[in-house]
Design goal:
Blueprint (H helix, E strand, L loop, with lengths): L5 H19 L1 E2 L5 E2 L1 H11 L2 H16 L11 H6 L3 H19 L5 H26 L7 H8 L4 H24 L2
Antiparallel strand pairs: 1-2
Amino acid sequence: MKKFSTRDLVLCAMSAGLLAVCSWISVPAAVPFTLQTFAVFLTLLLLPARQGLLTIAVYLLLGAVGLPVFSGFKSGPAALFGPTGGYLTGFLLTGLTCLIFELCGKKSAKDRIFSLVIGLLICYTAGTVWFVVTYTSGAMTVGKALSMCVLPFLIPDAVKLALAALLARRLRPVIGKIS
């Protein structure tokens, strides 16, 4: 397996920083509207999937150890294991989905976007299941969780994916020139 170069690690660190900043741009709701998914999409479109997965893992580890990188400047185990923590874990599953696609030889721009759509559906699933299991303010059904945590995000996440794809197409040649 190829080792990460200094350049690779710097790109991962910069992308993790972008994830943190995008998580702070938030509209409060039961599950806040943030630009986290945009940053996840952009990271996984710009970097090879292995680096993208590492970036998401670093981001989650930074939050786990107490750096306020999550939505609302939250951090720690409470954020990861609270009702919306499944969506954070879902980002990792989205990266893993992209890696699986890449390992299967699906590397075109269309393949990467398709892998992100599948990964986002997996993220929604993991997040919704976790939300239902950990919700503490009364009974929570899957239908109610979907109406609170998935349906309002479908169009915004589709727009974020489209914008990330457009931006990645413009930035990929620039990143390729960084030595």
